[in-house]
Specification:
Number of strands: 43
Shape: globular
Radius of gyration: 27 Å
Number of helices: 3
Oligomer: single chain
Length: 735
């Protein structure tokens, strides 16, 4: 296995030395400048672009094609104009399409929609010209909003929501977009004299029908459209001087919970609740956030997962207070070693446990061209099942060069004493050093070194990670090595596995055949995964080869994968996936996978996959299937099914069949009034779950929510059922 790893590394190095033509070009030494005119009259945000000021504004139309092939003539032209007044920056765009309304592709009207399935127009702004940070504002032909922060061109913070408006109009020649972005939402730097500012920006257009992606200015295909070292500049803007910039969002809710065993009511909760969030932009560089009696009733609910691996499952954060600016914390780019993971906050236990109330929280963020400083404090309330806790994080990040940085982060968790539960107070601290180096635009080096100190156990643990990758238009290759010793225990973090050293080299070619025009992109490749003990480096844990000769997107963006994964396992501890006890022994097995999905932008789409082969000392066949029907953007029905057929596995050579069903219905009157619901049933633990959520954005970022949750577990006798109803109203006011 070590010889295989060495051979892969030798191949990757030789590829790097021999590669000459990558089609990656450097950013211009002198950015393109677009002069912005000030309005004379009032701009009405209706998506029509027929105000006199729009008629006089200069037009920007020199977009660069990135997909389906870099360079060449565009099929879908885009024309953009800019204006400003004393309060807002205005962006107007006409996105032409010869088919007009009939050519539009959009799946639903939810906010913060996913890239890939919809027609999209957007702008990314770098108000402080940091080159490593962007605020993204995107929309579809139906006017739903997507706003996010982007760090270093590849780390997204989609939980960031800010005040801005957009309206669109669909015509027989395409669609128009009209955005109003308040200067208070941008936090720009004023010059030492005067009030003329320059804003870095990039534009992106995604025409989903033909998978055509274009940007202004030109950005290489292998990078995201938010690589701000390539940004152009908006100039001539007489921005208003800094003023009071406080955003207050109080809420009130009523919550009713009840738990039953059979027909017997065990307990119930019937109470109102109030609290608020506040944001104060102290100056363009500094923001202070405060939350009191925090509530997350509107957050998305995690879907059930049947875990057949020997690793912890990573469930992403979904709560907006913790999502905003989350990209600044160390380790946030990956899911193996995170010294700080906010899902540890507000739970009576570990991941997916019962929520615990949060009394108060505060976050401080200061970002300049040279550095960033951030801090977070949260007080978690004591409950019947858990002690009260204090959580604190401090982070410093230093930028140097064009896209390099180095950072230090300290986390501290203090759990209170709770004698009734036999819980002693405990201090847990982590100290982490991390950074990023980009010697050239296509090379990326990331590193992380972390230590945890736990007072109660008396243990000090260590963890580290290094990644080196080369990303071009024609190939990708990289190497990851991770180290986590047995004592590393970040009580505010997430670790995929302890006592392990993992090596993960690999790569793939990117082939865009010109003669086979029905194939858009073919990425054959291989990744190696080799794990051994950290305490005893000579002790092998497991290894696998992920070989994917067919990893292909077709012209309509349908997708086919054919892969195989030979796996070597050394089980020397208690391990029982889904209750099947695996005997301590060495195993070798091979698995095969075929996965296909149709064009996911069409009214009907589907996805089906089969993963079959040996599994330890037996066999396993996993079938997953999904179907979606979206006749109009206002209504979407999704159905998902997963089946596991396990035979002759474990000490007792048991058989096990599991079925996981999920149905999701989303209805929308418009992007601001929506109803979503899902039902999930897992045959493994005979658990059924309902979630129904109605939301109405009656004013910008002010909402009314109605939420219903119901969980029923049939495996117990009598049947256990938990029911919850929440009504909530929020009101946002900016001063």
């Amino acid at each position: 296995m070590k010889q295989t790893t060495l051979s892969i590394l030798t191949l990757l190095i030789s590829l790097s030395l021999s590669a000459q033509d990558t089609d990656n070009f450097p950013p211009s030494d002198i950015p393109i400048e677009i002069d912005v005119s000030k309005t004379v009259g009032e701009i009405k945000i209706d998506g029509r672009l027929d105000d006199p000021d729009w008629e006089k504004a200069d037009r920007t139309a020199d977009f660069f094609r990135r997909e389906p092939r870099q360079g060449g003539a565009l099929k879908y032209k885009t024309e953009v104009r800019f204006l400003y007044d004393d309060k807002n920056l205005y962006v107007g765009a006409f996105c032409s399409d010869s088919v007009g309304i009939e050519g539009i592709r959009i799946q639903d009207l939810r906010r913060d929609f996913s890239w890939g399935e919809n027609d999209i127009f957007g702008i990314a702004l770098d108000p402080q010209n940091l080159k490593q940070y962007a605020q993204g504002f995107q929309t579809t032909p139906y006017g739903n909003q997507r706003d996010f922060q982007n760090f270093n061109g590849n780390n997204f913070d989609t939980g960031w929501n800010t005040l801005w408006r957009v309206r669109t109009q669909r015509t027989e020649n395409g669609y128009t977009v009209e955005m109003a972005i308040p200067f208070k939402s941008l936090r720009y730097n004023l010059p030492e004299t005067g009030n003329l500012i320059e804003l870095g920006f990039t534009l992106v257009r995604y025409a989903r029908r033909d998978i055509e992606v274009s940007t202004f200015p030109a950005i290489p295909q292998s990078f995201t459209p938010y690589r701000m070292t390539y940004a152009a500049k908006l100039t001539g803007i007489e921005a208003p001087p800094p003023s009071t910039n406080i955003r207050v969002e109080p809420y009130a809710l009523y919550q009713y919970d009840e738990n039953k065993e059979g027909n017997v009511l065990i307990d119930k909760l019937n109470e109102p609740k109030t609290g608020f969030d506040a944001k104060w932009a102290v100056n363009p560089k500094t923001v202070l956030d405060l939350t009191v009696n925090t509530d997350f009733a509107q957050a998305d609910v995690d879907l059930a997962v049947n875990n057949l691996e020997r690793f912890n499952i990573f469930f992403p954060e979904r709560r907006q207070f913790f999502l905003e600016n989350s990209g600044i914390w160390a380790g946030g780019l990956q899911q193996s070693i995170r010294p700080f993971f906010s899902r540890r906050i507000g739970l009576q236990g570990s991941f997916n446990a019962t929520p615990a109330p949060i009394d108060v929280g505060a976050r401080f963020t200061q970002r300049t061209e040279k550095n960033a400083l951030a801090g977070l404090f949260v007080r978690q309330r004591e409950t019947e099942n858990s002690a009260g806790s204090n959580f604190g994080v401090v982070r410093y990040l230093k930028n140097y060069g064009n896209e390099n940085n180095i950072g230090l982060m300290v986390t501290h968790r203090l759990d209170d004493n709770y004698s009734e539960l036999g819980l002693e107070s405990n201090n847990n601290t982590t100290i982490s050093l991390d950074g990023q180096i980009r010697p050239t635009s296509q090379w990326d080096i990331q590193y992380l070194f972390s230590s945890s100190i736990d007072e109660l156990s008396g243990n000090t643990g260590y963890a580290g990670r290094i990644f080196v990758g080369n990303d071009t238009n024609k190939y990708y290759y990289g190497w990851v090595t991770e180290y986590t010793d047995a004592n590393y225990s970040p009580k505010m973090g997430f670790v995929r596995q302890t006592d392990v050293i993992r090596h993960n080299p690999g790569g793939y070619f990117i082939w865009r055949p010109k003669k086979l025009n029905w194939i858009r992109r073919w990425d054959p490749g291989m990744f190696v995964n080799y794990n051994h003990d950290a305490t005893d480096p000579g002790s092998f844990q497991q290894a696998s080869l992920y070989i994917f000769p067919v990893f292909t997107w077709f012209k309509d963006n349908s997708f086919l994968e054919v892969s195989t994964t030979p796996t070597w396992q050394n089980i020397n501890f208690a391990f029982a996936p889904l209750g099947l006890e695996i005997e301590e022994d060495r195993y070798f097995y091979n698995r095969y996978k075929v996965q296909y999905n149709t064009d996911l932008s069409k009214k009907w789409s589907s996805d089906i996959g089969v993963d079959l082969g040996s599994f330890y000392n037996g066999t396993r066949t996993t079938i997953n299937a999904a179907a979606r029907f979206a006749p109009v953007p206002h209504a979407t029905l999704s159905l998902n099914y997963e089946h596991n057929d396990i035979n002759g596995v474990g000490v007792s050579q048991e058989d096990l069949n599991t079925d996981l069903y999920t149905a999701n219905l989303r209805l929308a009157l418009n992007p601001r009034v929506q109803l979503s619901t899902f039902y999930q049933y897992n045959s493994f633990n005979e658990q059924g779950r309902w979630n129904v959520r109605f939301s109405w954005e009656y004013m910008p970022l002010s909402f009314i929510y109605l939420v219903f949750n119901d969980t029923q577990i049939d495996v117990f006798d009598p049947v256990q059922e938990s029911t919850q109803f929440i009504s909530k109203i929020t009101f946002l006011k900016q001063f």
